[in-house]
Amino acid sequence: MAAPMPLGDPAPQDGLLPRQSSLDAESRTFHAYVHIPFCDVICGYCDFNTYTSGDLAGASKSEYAKSVISEIAQSEQVLKQSGLAPRRLSTVFFGGGTPTQIPAEDLVSILASLRNTFDFVPGIEITSEANPDSVDRQYLAKLAEGGFNRISIGMQSAIPEVLATLERTHNPANLPEVIAAAKAVGLKTSVDLIYGAPGESIEQWQSSVMAAIALEPDHISAYALIVEEGTKLARQIRSGELDEVDEDLQADKYELADKLLSTAGYQWYEISNWSKSAPASMPTNKSSHNFAYWLSQDWWGYGPGAHSHMGGVRWWNVKHPTAYASRISQGISPALARETLNARTRLEERVLLEIRISDGLPIELIQELSPAAVGLIDHFVADGLVENNQPGKVVLTLTGRLLADSLVRQLTNT
């Protein structure tokens, strides 16, 4: 079951945005997220807005691309009527769900609509997530020919028993073939791992990390398993069917992953993300799209349940594909609710997000948040949580990365 939507003020049916969204818009980059909400099965740990065929209640996969393309046209008018000057897109990310549950031609059609509506900056990063069982070389070639240049594969684990606990249904043996095919058609590659599944040993985790490294992707993400309320996994743990997640073991697994990835030539650039160095003449292997989130840029989220952000105005669409398609067909904004963040909340969010990246959190932001909080930095350095050689910035050490949430709480509550 997908997580409930946050509370907010009702969004107007015309979707028009308040004036705050347009203030200093030229200083921010513009991005698109496209949500594809379909999956063969819902993994036990997943609380994303996803649906199997039996959950669609009349919504049509075959018509989905048309609905998204209609929302793209609608968004152009909303931005224009809300006083935001036209901006080209800097990144596009197709997530889910499983975007590759729909034909490659549909993904390419949506991308073409974004290009025709907003245009792209030179060197734009265009990514699709994929399940390794739902793509082959022919599918990936169609994506590459249609303008995609990056694929992110949901690997999670190389261990069948761990995948079974997570209720991931893909065959791990397919990963090498899919990564090789993606590289062959010219796509940059990323794989996602999850650590901390109930019963996963540190030896199993090491095997998964080494298997990911052996694929030689350009980028690797490793996320700690979070047990979300309302998921099947949460119910299994509550009933005693599965063990509680061991947070100390999760920390050990993170440290091991960082060691293995660093040794293999991957550099951390955000707490959960590592990338290979790219030649100066080549685009970065870091996820430019994720930087848009971490640096509080502007993005429009298309599709049911997708979230958007413009200048401190945040809104989210209706969740179910049927409700989404109905609104779109009537010319009504799919936005369900929104919130306008005040200056303090926006500043706190910047601290929360920017402390996570290796570029560091500017001390001037902490000063703006609370002059007293600046005094904590020396204590963080003394405790080995923050690097001592980064003037003007707070850059976390390995230990600091493990305690990032605690550091943020201290900074924002001082």
Automatic annotation (TrEMBL):
PROSITE patterns: RADICAL_SAM
Record key words, sorted: Chaperone, Heme, Iron, Iron-sulfur, Metal-binding, S-adenosyl-L-methionine
SUPFAM superfamilies: Radical SAM enzymes (SSF102114)
UniProt keyword S-adenosyl-L-methionine, yes or no: yes
InterPro entries according to UniProt: Aldolase_TIM, Coproporphyrinogen-III_oxidase, Elp3/MiaA/NifB-like_rSAM, HemW-like, rSAM, rSAM_sf
Listed GO MF terms: 4 iron, 4 sulfur cluster binding; coproporphyrinogen oxidase activity; metal ion binding
Name of the featured protein: Unannotated protein
Protein's organism: freshwater metagenome
